[in-house]
Structures are given as C-alpha cells and as structure tokens.
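Q: A reviewer asked whether we had any structural model of the full assembly, not just the individual parts. We don't, so I'm hoping you can provide one. Inputs are below.
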Amino acid sequence: MKSKKTGLARGLAVILTSLFVLSLFASSIAQTWAGKINTFLGTSSYETVKTGESTSDGIYFESEFGSVKEVIDAKEALAREISQEGTVLFKNDGALPLDPASEKVTVWGLNALAPTYGGLIGSTTSVNYEAGQTTVTLLDALKENGVSLNEELLKLYNSSAADAFRRKAAFFGQEVPGHSLIPVFWPMFETADSYMIGEPPADFYTQEALDAAKDTAAIVFLSRDSSEASDYAVSTMKDPNGDNFERPMALSDNEKAMIALAKENSNGKVIVVLNSDVTMEINELKNDPDISAIVWAGLPGAYGFRGVADVLTGAVNPSGHIADTYAVSSISAPAMQNFGLFFFDAPEGELDPANDKGNWYIIETEGIYVGYKYYETRYEDAILGQGNADSDAGVFASDGGWDYADEVAYPFGYGMSYTSFEQELQSVDFSIGGESKAVVKVTNTGDVPGKSVVQLYAQAPYIQGGVEKAAIQLVGFGKTATLQPGASETVTVDFDAKYVASYDQDAVKADGTQGAWILDAGDYYFAIGNGAHEALNNVLAAKLESDENLVKITEDESINADNAKKVTVGAKDIETYSEGVQNQLQDGDIRNLLPERGVEFVTRSDWTKGWEPVWGITPSDEMLKNLHNRVFELSENGEGLTWGADNGMRLIDMVLVDDNGDYQGSVALDDPLWDTLLENVTLEEAVNFMKGAGGNFEPINSIGLHVVAIYDGPVGFVSDQVPGYTANWTASESDEPTYVGPDNEYANWQMPTMPTEPVVAATFNVELVEREGELFGEDSLWANASSLFGPGLNNHRATYCSRNHEYYSEDSMLTNILGVAVCKGGQSKGLMMEPKHFALNHQEANRSGTATFVSEQAAREIELRGFQGALEGNYAQGVMTAFNRLGTVYAGAHRGLLTEILRNEWGYTGYVVTDMINGPEYMNWRDVTFAGGGGCLTENAYDSSIIGDPNSAENMKLIEKDTAFQQELKQMLKYDLYTFANSNTMNGVTSDTRVVRVHPWWESTLTGLNIGFGVLTAAALVWYVLPLLKKKEQ
Amino acid sequence: MNNKKISFGFVLAAISTVLALVCAFLYQSVGQQDGLTVTLLILAAVVGACALVLAFVMGKEIANFVAAVHAVLLMAAIGVSIAPVVNDMGLVFAGLYQNDIISAYITFAIVACVAWLVSVVASFVGVSKKA
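A: Here is a predicted structure for the entire assembly that you could use as a starting point for your response.
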C-alpha cells in the first residue's frame, strides 16, 4: 500500500514537473512571438500614458474628414474614378457605349461572377462582408447603371452544373474564389503546375440559355489572376478541368468556344472585357471583325468595376492608356528567354538551397530593351535597315523575318476614346541642367466630352556600337480636364533632361571616376502620340521626311511629323547629371564576373544576339563566397560608442512646433542633437530594434519611442495585418480626433479596396494618384497605422511574373512619376510610404536568393529609375529591399545599391527594411546592417539560425567589441527616428507621454499557468521526496 | 541474473531509454534544430541507463528517482525542440509551405512523446523491485 502511494506521488511529480517545464518553454516561445500574438488577438504589450504635464494636443497631422465613414466614402468614390480613367478601350467599331435604355446585355463568362479584384496575396482586395462591406462585380455595376441583364445565362452559371469549373485557389485553409494561382514559398516549377482558366466547355451551355442570349449585346468576360509568391509557367501549366491552352496568357479552348457561342447568339455586338493585369494574347480578337470592342479593365479592386461599367455605358468617356505592351505572343520579349528557373552548375552540395538560398539565377540579357523599348527600337532599326532588325532572331509571330506589325497587338500607351482629339506639339524647351518642358494644344474634335492624355517621348541619338539607347522613351505626360466638343486646352508637360540621359559605365569623368550619365552630341527628337508607337512614327516621319513604309497597327493611329520636334545638342555632356555618380553595380554584370563564358546581351548593333537562354552558369570562387553569404563579419575594432547615456532627451524633443502650436517637422537630420538623442539608446535596444522590424518597429523606451505600426500593401492596409480601423487603437488613445473605437459602426471595415497599380498607371493622371496617396494617408490616421509597404515600384520585366499587379508598368518613367505622386499624397498626411522591392525583384519563382545578373545601365535606367523620383525627393519615407540578389550579393545587403546609390547619390533620408526574412543565413542581420540596410522584417527568424539571434549573449559580446557595426546601427537608427519624427506616428505623443510595458491577458494567463504548475510541482515533489527522506532517516 | 529485480517498470524504462536514443537519431533529420535538444536527449538516455543499472544492480529507490529525472529530461528536450520549428509550422498551417518541411519534426515529436509517456508510466509503477 505504501509502495503504491509512493508510486503515485512519484508519477504525479513527474507529470507536474514535466508540465511545469513545458509551460516555461511555452511562455518563452510566446514571448518570442508576442508581436504576432498581439496582432492576432488585438492586444498590445505596450501602452502610452500621459502624466498630464503637457498642454499640447499632440496632433501634428490632421484629417480632412469628420468621421471614418467619410474616409470610406471618399475611397470608394476615388476607386470608381481611378477605374473610369484607368479602363482602356482597345477596339471599338461603334458598339460602345451601350445604351442601357434600349439594349439588353448577356454577360458571358463564369469568371464574371467571381472576378479577380486584386492579388491572392500581395495587393489583396478584401472586405468584411459580415460588417456590411461588399465588393462590386461588373454584373452589379452594370445593373447599378441601369443595364438590363439576361438572367437565363446567369442562372446557368449560378447552378451546381457550373461548380466544377469555378476558380478557387486553396489558400490558408480556405477556397478563394476568383483565383487559380497558388502561392508557394518553396522552389517552383520543378513539376508541372496546374492553372484553371475557370470557364466551362461549349456543351455546358443549354439551348435555353443560348436562345435567351439572342438579340442581346454580348459582354465576354476573360480573366487571369495574380498573386505574390507565384509565377505563371510558360509551358508546364495545364488546366485540371481539361481545358487547353498553348500558353496561360493565350485564349483557352473553352474561352474560344464561349466567344464563338457569344458571336452566334447575340445581336451582333460582342464586347470583350479583359480582367487581367498580365498581358494576354488577344491579337485574334483584335483582328476578328465579329468582335466589336475590346476593353481592358485590369484588376480594379473592390469597387472599380463601377468605373468599368461607367465606360461601357458611356457615363464616362474612356481616357485610359495601357501601361504595358500587348504583344501578339506573350513570350516574344527578350526578357522572357531568361525568365524562370536557372540552376548554377556547381558540384553537388556546394550550394545550399535551404540555408544559403544560393542555387538559382537569372541573367537579364535583354539589357535596357524591356517592353516597348524592345519592340519600338527594333521597329525603328527595321525601318532604317540597321542592326539585322529584320532577321528571324526573336521571331515569334512573324512569317519570315521579324515584322513589327506581326509581333505587336497594342503598343504601350495606347488607348481610345468615344470622341476624337487633335494634339499639336507647339514647342519643346530642352535644357540640360535646367527645367525642360513641352507645350501641347489639345482640341476635342469629336462629339462627346472627354479627357485626353498627352504623352511626351524622347529619342536620344544612337551611335552604332555605342551606348545602348531605346529609340523612344517616355519622359513625361499630362492630362486635360474634361473637354467639351470643340474645346481646347494647352497642356504643359514638365520633364527632366536627366531622365533623357543614358548611363555609360565606360565614361570617365573629369575627376577620374568611371561611370556617368551621358547626353551624346547629336539630334534629339521629342514627340507626342497615342502611345509609344505613334510617337516613334512621328519621330521617324520627321527624321525621314516621309511616312512611307511606316507601319500603323491600330485603328486610332495617325502619323504627323509636326508632332516631333528636333533639338540638337552640340557637345557631349557627361558631367551635368553625374555629380557623385560612378559605377556601383559592376558586380551584378555576369560579363564582368565570368568573361570567359561569353554571355551575349541584346544589342541594337545586332539584334540576332542575346536570345539564348543562359543555362548552367558555373560560379567562380569569388561568386561562391557571396553565394554562401557572410559578406561581412564582426570583428574587434575601435573603442566603442556611447550607449544608454540617460541625458534626458527624448524623441518628442526633436519635433518642432511653432508659437501657435502648429507642427513644423523635426530637427534637421544633420543636427548634432540627433547624436545626443541616440546616446540615450542602449545597445540592446538598438539591436532589438534592428532585428524586430517585422509587423511593427519595436519600442525604444529610453527615448520614448512607442511601437510604430508598419503594414502591407499597395492597395491599402491588408486585412490579415490590420483587420479593421479599430484594430490598432487602445482605449487610452480615445481622445485623439481620428480614434475609431470598437463600437463604431465601421470599426471592422477593411481597407485594401483600391484598384491595382496597372489600373492606376493606365489613368496617366498624376492628380488622381496623388489623391490616392492622400486617402492612404487618411486610412493611416483613422487606423492608427503609420507606415504602408507600398507602392510597388519594380518594373514589369516579364509578362509571366504574376506579381506585376503590384507594380505600375513596364516603363520606369511612368513608374517614377506615379511613385512620386502617391508618396507625396501619403506624406501630406504623415503616412510613411514604403516603396518595394528595392531592387530587381522581377520574378516570384524562387525569389529568395535568386542571383539576378544585370548590366549597370539596365539596372539604373530600367529598374532603379522607377524608384528614383520618390526616394531622391524623399517623398517616400521607407523602402523595402528585395528577396533576390543583385549579382551574387543579397539585394538587402548590397552596399553599392543601398549606401552608394540610395544614400550618397540620391540623398535618401528615410528608413530601409528587408522583406520578410526568408532564409536567415541568406538575409542575415550582419550583412544587412554593414551594407547600410536597416530593420530586418521577420522577428525571430534568427533565433534558430546558425548566425543566431543578434541579441543573444554570444552575439552581444561580439557587437560590443565592433565599433564599426555600432556606427552602422546608430546611423540606421538616426534615419529611422528622423523619419518617425516627421510622420503621423508622433500623433498623440507629447512631452509628457510615456511608453509603459503592460501585460496583455494572454501573458497574464501564461504567468498564472507557470505559477500554478510551479506550486503543484513543488507540492508533488514534497509529497514524493519527504517520505523518502524520512524513511532514510529511519 | 536476478529475475526478481526486473519489473514491468524496468522494462518500460528500458524502452523509454532506447526511444530517447532513437529520438536523438531522428532529430538529426529535422530542418530547424536546437543543439540543446540532442544534448538533453542523450542526457535523458544516460540518466535512463543509470536508472536501469541502479535498479538492476542495486535495486534501490534511488533508481526510481533517477528514472523520474529521465522523464523530466525528455520533456525538457521536447520543449526545447519546439521553438525553432514554430515558424515552419505556422507556414505549413497557413498553406505557404509543404508538409515535408516539418514531417521529420512531427515524427521526432511523436516518438519523443511516446518515450515520455512510457517513462511516466514507468515512474508510476517504479523501475526497481527489491528482492
């Protein structure tokens, strides 16, 4: 009996001790993930309290609205307006606009019932249906506009017979309608992927439904979706439902069958609507006389289909212009030849995909010839008979030699209207080092009111065999107000001559440094046009003094030599735009790294070059070193810096307020007061801040910095990070004017509802885009979230990148100008806009670690130029680095990119953060910090990595000895704090504000469990051990 | 051999000790590791072996106590092993990663939990039995 009692005590002691141990570990893990847990539960570990000594209200950025409902309404209205102006009319034989009063419409396409509004992840459109929020389909919008819809076909689409064909991407345990792409975070394309088009076959359609469609106008809805962490595969994708397509961007058999049925069963009007941010192959629709009209809607967000319906019904005259070239074959761009998966040829085991992310690469052999800069430049050379432009290299749709008319369906910048406009280029002032502008008179020569976009292009003189130059490049644009028939408006397009310049890596400047922005001597042409092709034709007509042999490919196109102006530059200039500039990215050019491999790039001097996919690169020893990461190591140097000084200064002391209490920004960045402030920060706080920039920036109690909220993304704060307007507020902040409490009717309304960036780009309307930035800023004020991971400013290098929906365009200048506008708008409300992904994130397939090899000229002109305006002007306050490598060095740890170009050349003063740490050995904190990067976005990623947690005892000892590392930390912190002091994150903070640590309920619960198990364990041990001891004494 | 000294608990403790070694082996194929886990598992195995020796050779109550420590060490090893895989588990549950990145851990964790449960039962019944 006694033995049984002892056994029971022993067993219980073991169980309770084990549970106590487990509870302690659980608490530790929970503390590590406190940020995520708090976000999930809507709790916080910190609270700001006021001691009551300050009389300031602490509101530095004010809302223009009186309630959150007004913000929601303004966003909804703006989304509609953006789509009105971003919807592009490609083709119209007079079928559009529809007359809602007299025409009944049949909407064809199962996908119309569940369209793609935004990305599956990345620029995800989401609304809270339970809270009363809705999305609007094209069907809803047409009905709102008074269109009578044929319900018979809709009944069929809504029946269970259609269930097997509906697109539903399985994601986060849910089936997401309107999507087929499935995001993956592991190496892609190793097996054939599936892609469901989402349309049923011809035999799905019943005779009853077809009969009902006769005598109605047909709107055929075609859709392709988009998502972060996914790419389209050119040849391996198959439709699991048996639909067939040559390529995912081409029309599928079921889509073709549906179009045929629509043509047979309609009143003769067949209007195709494209719901896609990736460029589809639509040349057969363009050339089909039975297709009356083609309208591009893009992915227009939650409410944008209203704008599309406004265009279809003529409530608004279309004024959008497409921001990407619609090629006949979606794989005909040279960039597509080196897109996807390329593996280094290295001895087995030499490169480690798991930790080092070092196995993959792409070589951007297209150089600067991306999008229209390829098609149009080759077109000019074909016309001029130079550079083997009409050879059969790179032919995908031509019969014989390369022929522009066979290769391009709709050129970049093209778009039609229901009226006609006459544009007259009146003058061009081209000033190197000064302000340049073009004056254009626009007259509405048609019958209905409308807006007209003025696109200004430039052609710099190309010297055969010299620096590569595109035959035409966008340098600026403007848009008229709504012009009544017969009315005119003079539009002035300001532009900067530095964006006409080309980057010459071989140029040697007066100071002896190599690499410069050059403007060659010769004739420069400036031209306007409805797209790049018309502008180039105008240039060619002026150059050749004839339009004979020039090719027109669209119905709304004209050639006018008077709309091109020549400006002659007498002497080559390599200094004006090259101050402080020199080569920084030569380690990204494979031709420098492996000259013996002889990789050829596309060149105007011979268009037959650069078309080969470059397989099996064998990395050199130097490349291997970088592919193993560890570019920088900690060492013992210097005598350390001052940390934890406690001199009484706090961040709020850096905020300037005038005598009237009005906000005046902050103390200047170069003021020594910042150094004094930084001395108060402890080294541990600084390290913790650096490693913990994911989700939120960590608080720094020593200087009164509270948690700074930082969330995705380009169409508004995403709902999985900010579930609604109330999520980030605490009751202690209820006195702030933009506070949204949990009882507010709109407390849980979600924010990412705006149209995706390609739709925004197609507006060519800077004012609209700046207004979008302002409304993002309003969301920021009302949701208490100060920083937004957006806009996406990468270039649309390749059609098959399914993340193009998060970036504006294939053109870096359009991206540049719109990036400035949206960031400027956000900044006016104190929102820290954070462009991403800096730089060269051109594909999602194996994005983490992909070594991206690129010429410095292409990197600067095609990719970095998109970011340059917003960052150089400091309109953006943050920038997120990319997952990929630049050359063999992680882009977030590339000193040439982050320190030399971003900071030193551009003078950027905002903060830098990495993208999500996806491979802590690869995206390691030492390399990031030493290279001039900044915060590391994923908290805790390092805890289990080889390189380890930076504020572990071991690493802290190393950091304490490394003064150089500490200096980088201080510099990073200075940029961060300066940025915060100039943002609305300071709203509510006054001189008497204190940040205090609080214990959310889950933390208290865990502590209670620890104590409980601790007490029980002690009791059980006493029960077990005490009798044993007594027994021993006896 | 003195058969009177071999109890049911002794057999369970022996199984648990062997399983601790098996766990240490299985843990080598886990993607995200913490070195302390292996140390604790080997320590648990050594302590378990000590308990067996004490029970077999000396047959004293101290063997039961040592076996209890073996069980707690096993749980500590399980606890330490969790932190490095939380991120991966989250990614798998979110559908962002395939199961195979945590399958090795799941196998390890199941075997480790079985080892712990066996050791707990052994603690209840006792590993030593006096002659």
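A: Points you may want to mention in the reply: The CA atoms of residues 17 and 48 of chain B lie 5 Å apart. The first helix of chain B runs from residue 8 to 27.
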